[in-house]
Amino acid sequence: MSDPRAVVVRGLEKRFGDKVAVAGIDLDVPRGSFFGLVGPNGAGKSTTIKMCTALLRPDEGGVWVEGFPVWTDPRRAKSLLGVLPDDLPLFERLTGGELLNFVGMARGLDAAEVGRRCDDLLAVLELDADTATLIADYSTGMRKKVALAAALLHTPDVVFLDEPFESVDPVSARTIVDLLRSYCRGGGTVVLSSHVMDTVERLCDHLAIVAAGRVVRSGSVEAVRDGRRLEDVFIEAVGGAVRGHTLRWLSPQMSSQPPAVS
Amino acid sequence: MVVPADVVSAAGGVVIPSGAAASDGVAGSGPPVAPRRTGHDAALADRSLIALFVGLKWRMLRNGLRRRTRSPWATVGFVVSFVAGVLCAVVGLTVSIRVRALWDDAGQFRVIVGGCFALIFGWWFGPVLAGGVDETVDPLRLAAPPHPRQLRTGQIAAGFVGIAPAVVMCCMGGLLVGASRSLTVVPVVAVAVAVGLLLALVGSRAIATTLARLARSRRGGDAATLVAVLGGSVVFAGAQLIRFLTIDQIDAAIGVLRWTPPGLAGEAILLAGRGEVAAALWRIVVTAAMVGLSGAWWSRQIGRLIAEPMDVVGSRPATVAGGSMPLFAGAVRSRVPPTPSGAAVARELLYLRRSPGRRTALAAGTILGVVYVVIVLTAAKVVTPLAAPVATMFALQYGSNQLGVDPAAFWIEVSIGPPPAARWVARQMLASIALAVPFVCSALVLAVVSGEWVDLLGATIAMLGAVPALVGLGSVVSPMLATPIPDSGNPFGSRQSMQGTGCLAAIAGMGYLVAGGVLVAPAELGLRWTSQRGEWLAYLGIAAVHLMVGVLVWRTTTRFARTRIDDVELEVMHRLDQRLNG
Q: Which tens digits make up the pLDDT trace of B83-138?
């Protein structure tokens, strides 16, 4: 019987000088799942995704994608992966179609197939009206969509998406969600990072809460929630939200600071 | 319906004056009321601003050195540039202090006026050419305070912190002692020096801010790139040219330059030092007026940069043909095979067409190369055929720093993991163009001028062998010393000058140049020697061996680069990281 896990992460560690970014993460991502990697800012989500996608070498630990070790057989693992990073440096002087052509050809796909897939993806993501526009002239949302298209073009087994819905308008977000759900239904696995609990609760069936470079809770969303709101579980798990603090000077009506004269 | 004089907030029962409600878009009939407070937007005192910005710049320099993720090579680059800076400062200070002892009146005129022109003009375009202006002057980073223009005093002060500014200040500050013939003229000289320094700095800020504003749109960015590359080329060409000019030619040039604002600043220092106060004063006044104009322009550009929407500057969609495979559309690209390597080549061809920065850099390299060769030839009487390959020294950027092209998108390549050949083919193509075009142009010019067409043949054969070898060597060197070549004219878009990487690239370039000389010279001299003696069999033998050696070096080095790229790509990607380099 085949392993039901699409991604396995064991003992992943990464330090930047004295700062520990990831302090030994273990993850099991079920195949065909919509997996959320959630955590506060600086928890190590993006670092973990970069190490899972062969974009950042870990100090310790390993990552396996569909059984292939990312760090000892990166070429095979990369052929199964798609990645959407948090920052989106792209080839600015290509159009969306040209970028997708380049990515498809660089991945060794057949030219005719690349052409068909590019047309499909540009149409589905509503970028087909801007075929003559260079990426340099794209809005942030359009950049995100074309980068997502590039991540999906080769039909990866697993896609890693770092904050995919940031800067994306609700209509485009709905399009992306539909696309990703359809991808999951087809057997693909999505791992997305976010710190927006609503998004994760609505989309994901499995999740891991990461804090200070460690997984503090993981499992199916229902199991992690345990009948409560995910946001409450998250706050409890990461140990934040000390309530009741107020800044007296922040109230314009209460401020004792005399207004400065311009 | 009666509109109440006061509106009661549903949230907290706080009474809101009706005028305020009206101003917020809530219905109300009362007159608008004055804001409750004037806010905390009062200008800081100039002294506080100076301390604030000088501290900011100092911390940025210090933290850049201390950064945990900093490459050791960048540290080496910084140390080298620091040592070079100290040496330049010491030499500059010594020369400027001893200017009267070292030169007669005519010589002082040349050194002070010419030197001040070079320093001020260099400060205007130097930071743009070096790939970055520090963030302390980036208006967009300082847009939040209510009166960003008032921060100029601090920004000017911060501009004097750093290695390059320290060198300039030493050179011009030394004139305070060197140019003054008596104590009584020192105050006037001091004013002239101060105004000259301000002209350098404020002019530099005005240019950088204008380019940054242009760079907010693609077309504007292209224009800014043109200005930056051409401005930098003029500085560089001027620096090279001066070595080959006669004294009379230098005097004639300075005779013209003295009437430019930087020249006036220099002459003001000279005349003030000689006690010709009236003559010095009007020049100081004109220079100060230029400072004022530059400052006004700078302020205007800051305002427009912050307030204007991007599309005001202009943005034109590209014209793109092609259906499903637009990457391979077009007369040339349609002949490129649709393979991973072909895709890389097609993308590079597109960039050559669409990136004015890339085209300008190649064109500037070619033009400078030809000019340089002609100068070398006429002034230094170098052997004709050996001169042509010298033109390729301006192609080092694309020759030895092949991975620095398109630094931002390097991650795409890493994440895809294309076949190793596709990693290098387009970069080597670009390097070949960068190396071959200036050579061919300069060789043709030399042949036309000298009539030595046999030498042109020899030089061409020598370069045919050397280009592949140099390209292969560049592929080996590049991963070790990759330095980002930004594809944008935004002077705030790159911070190489604060990272030490620019200096490092220069060191790598010099080593690469020596390798080029070693590859070209023996073959070319051998070919010339045999052709002069009519030993054509030996000529053919040398040509064949040289070409074979070139191909062999290319094969060996490219194979090494292909096997090594997977191991070093993450380190290179980190070095090219947009957030670290702009």
A: 888 899 999 999 999 988 888 888 889 889 988 998 898 888 776 665 555 656 66
User: Which of B221, B408, B415 comes nearest A78 by C-beta?
Assistant: B415
The percent of residues above 70 in pLDDT, for chain B, comes to 73
Sign of the C-alpha dihedral, residues A11, A12, A16, A21?
negative
Listed by number, the residues of chain B in 211-270 with a beta carbon closer than 8 Å to a beta carbon of chain A are 218, 221
Q: Which residues of chain B make contact with A116, given a CB cutoff of 8 A? A: 324
Q: In whole angstroms, give the CA distance from residue B177 to residue B361.
A: 41
Determine which of B9, B75, B354, B411 to mutate to test the interface with A (most A C-beta atoms within 10 Å).
B411
- What are the tokens at B343? 């895709």
Nearest to B343 among A85, A101, A119 (CB): A101
What is the mean pLDDT of the segment spanning B561-578? 84
Task: Assess contact for B406 and A91: CB atoms under 8 A.
Answer: yes
Partner-chain contact A137 B218, CB within 8 Å: yes
Structure tokens at B369: 């190369």
CB within 8 Å: A119 and B487 = no
Instruction: Specify the pLDDT at position B496.
Output: 45
- For A194-204, the pLDDT digits (tens) are 888 888 888 99
Interface of B with A in 420-459 (CB under 8 A): 422
Distance CA A153, CA B449 (A): 56
Q: Which of A46, A56, A76, A98 to mutate to test the interface with B (most CBs of B within 10 A)?
A: A98
Residue A188 CB partners (closer than 8 Å, separation 6+): A32, A155, A156, A157, A158, A159
B501 burial type by CB count under 10 A (0-12 exposed, 13-18 middle, 19+ buried): buried
Q: Give the B window 144-173 contacts with A, CB below 8 Å.
A: none
Asked whether the whole model's pTM tops 0.80, one would answer no
Q: Kindly give, in sequence order, each residue whose CB lies less than 8 Å from that of residue B129, ignoring residues fewer than 6 positions away.
A: B228, B229, B231, B232, B235, B236
Q: What's the rounded Cα separation, in Å, for the pair B200 and B119? A: 8
Q: Which one of B37, B68, B355 has the shortest CB-CB distance to A259? A: B37
C-alpha distance from residue B532 to each of A106, B535, B539 (Å): 50, 8, 10
